[in-house]
Amino acid sequence: MRTLFALWAAPLLLFWGWFFLSLNDINFGYVVLSRQLHDLVFQLYGQMLGVDPALIPGMVAKACVFDGLLLVAFWAFRRRKAIGGWITAMRNRYFDQASTPSA
Which in 30, 35, 53, 82 has the greatest CB count within 10 A? Predict the structure, then answer.
């Protein structure tokens, strides 16, 4: 699972790192991080998709959240016995404390 999380997170870190650095024109002398290339890339994607380029970062963010939720659901399904045991232990602990009279 760690490998799956790493394979999921690495491209996201690269994309969002590039996005915010190029959005704010923090380029460290690299053309790849320039605001001009940022605008060109999103204009190109906007033309290919037929949408306003300003909507693309929000679309990517929604896709990232959806993928993250799917990944967490997959992880929870694989760990359902451990999670179920934890929930049972917490429920038993809570009801054991609630059933004992307080002094």
Answer: 53
